[in-house]
Amino acid sequence: MDSQTHQNQPLQTLPETTARPPISGFPASVVNRVKNNLLFRSKWAELNGAMGDLGTYIPIVLALTLAKDLNLGTTLIFTGVYNIVTGAIYGVPMPVQPMKSIAAVAITDPDFGIPEAMAAGILTGAIFIFIGCHGADATCDDEIEERESDGNLGDRERVGKRRKLTKIVASLPSAFNIFLLGVVLAIIRGPKVVKGFKFGPSPIEIVKISKNAWKDGFIKGTIPQLPLSILNSVIAVCKLSSDLFPGRDVSAASVSVTVGVMNLVGCWLGAMPCCHGAGGLAGQYKFGGRSGCCVALLGAAKLGLGLVLGSSLVKV
């Protein structure tokens, strides 16, 4: 009897441990997009492409540092973060360049210092955010029929079809090798500069901007910079990106917003006013950049140098 009643009793089951569901929906799509945007297309080619815009970046940054005492360490840190973020967002070698008109005025005008330059960058950034959020420039690229020279000479595989030696030479990371050679030569010419390195980031401070600095920054910096940035940093970049990377188009509104955010965040803390540029995109593409990983590598290098050596790098 006892055995019969025992058989009739339902079996007690242990509570099931539910497995954690995988990430799905919007977060998963964002993660997958970032992974795809930062994917290595070719290790050496992406590294080589990262050097493609340094010919613009290094001279202007060093000139501002030497002439106007720009905080080089802060600029390296912020521009490094900009490179990583824009690479993750757009998935193309989107460059981060100095705002050339503002930089030119700062270098040549003795009355236009760092406060004026930062004011110009902040005001330009605010205007670009307004433009991007209102979509005022979203259709501007439809008016541009002729694109800028994109520097596209074809993939490296086309080079050296006839001669094996030419193919081998063309496959080498030439821009990266030349950059390393330049660093080595600079150290050889002045070995004492290595002793002058100070480890650690430069102090980051909020820039004090007077009313007169806001005025001069807007008149001398923002007004001449706006047409240059709208054409080169937004319209030309979007057009060139669609030509070089079909299917990975970037909108003019989003590029305007990223330009604005970069300057609204960094310029308050002394980072150089920045924008994108078609010339930088063409240069990085020419040397092998094919994804956001290209500029993310450059950004990681800038960030590391800014955190480890700071402004002492200017002595090189």
Please, could you describe this protein's structure?
- This protein has helices at residues 2-8, 26-37, 43-49, 54-68, 72-90, 100-108, 114-134, 164-171, 174-189, 211-244, 252-266, 278-286, 292-308; strands at residues 97-98, 274-275.
- It has one domain (40-184, 210-315).
- A two-stranded antiparallel sheet has the order 1-2.
- It has 13 helices and two strands.
- Helices cover 60% and strands 1% of the residues.
- The protein is mostly helical.
- It is globular.
- 41% of the residues are buried.
- One of its GO terms (molecular function) is molybdate ion transmembrane transporter activity.
- Keywords: Membrane, Transmembrane, Transmembrane helix.
- Residues 1-22 are annotated as: Disordered.
- This is Molybdate transporter 1.
- It comes from Rhododendron griersonianum.
Kindly list the characteristics that best describe this protein.
mainly alpha, two-stranded antiparallel ribbon, 2 strands, 1% strand, globular, molybdate ion transmembrane transporter activity, transmembrane, MOT1/MOT2
Main sheet?
A: 2 strands, antiparallel
How much is the average pLDDT?
83
**How big is the Rg?**
25 Å
β content, as a range? under 5%
The unreliable regions are 145-153, 155-160
Helical percentage: 55-70%
Distance between the termini: 95 Å
Number of structurally distinct domains = 1
Oligomeric grouping of the chains: single chain
Q: What class, by secondary structure content?
A: mainly alpha
Number of helices: 13
Number of strands: 2
Q: Give the strand line-up of the largest sheet.
A: 1-2
The sequence of SSEs as H and E is HHHHHEHHHHHHEHH
Shape: globular
Biased composition (Polar residues): 1-16
Organism: Rhododendron griersonianum
Transmembrane segments: 72-92, 168-188, 250-271, 292-314
Protein name: Molybdate transporter 1
